[in-house]
Amino acid sequence: MELSGAEIVVQALKDEGVETIFGYPGGSVLHIYDALFQQDDVKHVLVRHEQGATHAADGYARSTGKPGVVLVTSGPGATNAITGIATAHLDSIPMVVLTGQVPSALIGTDAFQEVDTTGISRPCSKHTFLVKRVEDLAEIMRKAFYIATTGRPGPVVVDIPKDITDPNIKIPYEYPRNLKMRSYSPVKKGHLGQIKKAVDLIYKAKRPIIYSGGGVVIDNASGSLVDLVKELGIPVTSTLMGLGAYPASDPQFLGMLGMHGNYEANMAMHEADVLIAIGARFDDRVTGHIAHFCPQAKIIHIDIDPSSISKNVSVDIPIVGSVKDVLNDILRIIREGDRKIEDDGLTSWWERIEAWRGLGCLRYEQSDEVIKPQFAIETLHKVTGGDLYLTSDVGQHQMFAAQFYKFDKPRRWINSGGLGTMGFGLPAAMGVQMAHPGKPVACVTGEASILMCIQELATCKQHGLPLKIMLMNNGYMGMVRQWQEMFYEGRYSHSYVDALPDFVELTKSFGHVGMRVTKPSDLEAAMQEAFDRKDELVFMDIVIDPTENVYPMIEAGKGHHEMAMSPASKQGGQQ
Amino acid sequence: MNRHIISLLMENEAGALSNVSALFSARGYNIESLCVAPTDDPSLSRMTLVTTCSESVFEQITKQLNKLIDVVKLMDLSEGDHIEREMMLIKIRAEKEMREEIKRLAEIFRGKIIDVSDNSYVIEMTGDSDKLDAFVHVIPEDHVIEVVRTGVSGIARGVKSLTL
Ligand SMILES: Cc1cc2nc3c(=O)[nH]c(=O)nc-3n(C[C@H](O)[C@H](O)[C@H](O)COP(=O)(O)OP(=O)(O)OC[C@H]3O[C@@H](n4cnc5c(N)ncnc54)[C@H](O)[C@@H]3O)c2cc1C
Ligand SMILES: Cc1ncc(C[n+]2csc(CCOP(=O)(O)OP(=O)(O)O)c2C)c(N)n1
Ligand SMILES: [Mg+2]
């Protein structure tokens, strides 16, 4: 088969099984767009801003586990994509980003729409390639997908100068399926000696806890996690990124840990004698003040990336390997033996945990007059029966969703944790909906966040994406306002979102359905109506209490045991 | 804080070197010298890197370097017996009675005079970094015109080696 560079790009996508890509055309990728035009296998979703393309591909990847693919032009196309690349990088999301580049001969001359794309993306991607010869293109495409999807996944950028895709230069094409790279060979199997040590330690534990993270979701290892937790009868908590990997409705689940995590989860971390960290990276939002972190615990850490291990917190038993392989080895050893964790110890451990749980750290004060954000998320859960793909933007609404929407399945909660990118929610939801046609997909957002990528409402119209957008409209950058209230004596410097548009009319002008809800008593019926409109995008402007804060909270410099509680939890208010 | 010499083999690809140097600046690691050239296998480059840091930072440095896709293999030379060498070209003002004195000093340090003009010498010298420092120090400061150093390269003693 003889193909041009442009055709090789498209054919390689087909050979990778890519069905959908997200992109935006421009001069340096026109040859590729022409090749796309002449085929029907790879579907192209035209976004309205390249940031949207990257977040959409990211949402596609998070909800399926398959790599998301982006195609953008050189210069401003590439720079617009950077935020989305960095977002995917920090959360270890597999993505392949194809960027056009000025013709090889012009590189370095400050040519029209030239930027050093590999240079800019290097620090925020897993790897970058600049294609120098069309003969290398097929192999680089294969390498890009291989690197993006294996080991600790991440975004890979392939920068393609325009002359490489010249339709008039055809070369023989064969896709290098069995690629081997001497410089890159991630391990999957964990070291058996380390695994046995870990099992021994687990049996000695009196107050064990599992701290599970995004790695469990990434590795599709929920089943193994559930088996292990059930086998051992021990408590499990999860990071923001791991939510759904262990069913939230199960009593062994203590909820999220960390800055806005559950009191019982953080207290259990603080008191634990053995901590089993699984695919989690000891982020500062999770650990609180490092000096106070798990002071009594011996730590086992399972992670595929050696550089995650002992980076922030030094661990006692590191196990480098994939979550699924390692958990399955642990399970096998446990099932072959007939040992048990000492029941006496576990019983009193659970008693303490139940006492912490009894405090009801997520209590909030309900109101008849104004919609509370917590109530809005609870209503969302009720109306959708917990069966929903939910994306989020960044801010208080994100934390309320994480706390109150009880995710029972992995890949259902889709949010930017590491970079915390406002503007992520709507385009990510588009990617999710593209991957799961006919399934309910919602985006919870704030009035500040949604305006960062609002243009994508047009993409939703063009591609008929019936998203449900839940705007938690508090009129403030709530998360910023909360910090200013707590740490800057209420000086609300530039956190009031003035001059807001009329979101209902704005939505209508994009050709969608807009609704506004202001009364708690109307909320459920309105949400029900929104989800009943199966084929339409419905934008719900939900006017919520502008003063509500996210609790509980570990303030900066504090430890897990020093959480600030909500007024309602302190008083034992209604839940 | 310890001084470490890291020797690494990486793919001889465009961008490989910048991946390494960008890693050091992005993560705030200290880098004292960096020396890189292709090997007898033209598809591979060998780099020698010197850094001074705490042991925990050093652990992260090696992990992060290994994580770079282009890095094939690396080794901490300073962990075992090794030889390190650096080359220096130094241009020294050499006039009147100083001409003899500088020549004598160069001989003591086993340097070679490789260029001579009426009032200057260029001396080539190899050795470990301390030796080169010592030589620079014995030359009166106002006589040193220019110093060019390659940075350290090194090799393990005995059969131990960094090869594929
Ligand atoms: C406003 C805001 C508030 C936040 N508050 C909180 C909070 O209260 N609590 C909280 O938890 N987070 C919070 N976060 C998120 C936080 O910033 C981090 O993103 C998050 O804690 C990281 O989750 P993680 O440790 O699971 O790591 P991830 O980023 O999901 O990393 C996954 C880890 O698993 C490893 N891994 C990947 N694939 C595999 C595999 N196949 N096998 C084995 N290991 C693998 C990776 O190497 C990595 O170490 C907040 C974010 C925002 C924006
Ligand atoms: C792109 C970007 N800019 C700034 C921030 C800092 N930031 C974090 S939360 C937040 C406020 C978000 O406000 P809104 O979307 O209304 O959500 P709320 O907190 O009110 O629920 C800001 C500005 C960010 N995370 N991302
Ligand atoms: Mg807001």
Quick one: how many beta strands of chain A? 20
- Percent range for helical residues of chain A? 25-40%
Helix content estimate of chain B: 25-40%
Q: Name the shape of chain A in a single word.
A: globular
Compute the number of helices of chain B: 4
Given helix and strand content, the structural type of chain A is: alpha/beta
Radius of gyration of chain A: 24 Å
Order of helical and strand elements of chain B: EHEEHEEHEEHEE
The low-confidence runs of chain B, each spanning 5 or more residues with pLDDT under 50, are none
Tell me what portion of residues of chain B adopts beta-strand conformation. 35-45%
N→C terminal distance of chain A: 66 Å
- Number of structurally distinct domains of chain B: 2
- Report the major sheet of chain B: 5 strands, antiparallel
Provide mean pLDDT of chain B, rounded.
95
How is this structure best described in words?
The complex is a heterodimer of chains A (575) and B (164). Chain A has 575 residues and is α/β, with parallel strands linked by helices. Chain A contains 22 helices and 20 strands. Chain A folds into 3 domains: 2-172, Rossmann fold (3-Layer(aba) Sandwich); 192-357, Rossmann fold (3-Layer(aba) Sandwich); 373-550, Rossmann fold (3-Layer(aba) Sandwich). Helices cover 38% and strands 16% of the residues of chain A. In chain A, the strands form 4 sheets. In chain A, strands 3-2-4-5-7-6 form a 6-stranded parallel β-sheet, sandwiched between helices. A 6-stranded parallel β-sheet of chain A has the order 11-10-9-12-13-14, with helices on both faces. In chain A, helix 1 (5-15) packs across helix 2 (30-37) and helix 1 (5-15) runs parallel beside helix 6 (134-149). Chain A is globular, with a radius of gyration of 24 Å. In chain A, 55% of the residues are buried. The model of chain A has no long low-confidence stretch (mean pLDDT 96). Chain B is α+β, with helices and mostly antiparallel strands. Chain B has 2 domains: 2-79, Alpha-Beta Plaits (2-Layer Sandwich); 83-153, 2-Layer Sandwich (Alpha-Beta Plaits), CATH 3.30.70. In chain B, strand 2 and strand 3 form a beta hairpin. The longest helix of chain B is centred in the middle third of the chain and has 13 residues, at 55-67. The two termini of chain B are 31 Å apart. Chains A and B meet through strand 6 of A and helix 1 and helix 2 of B.
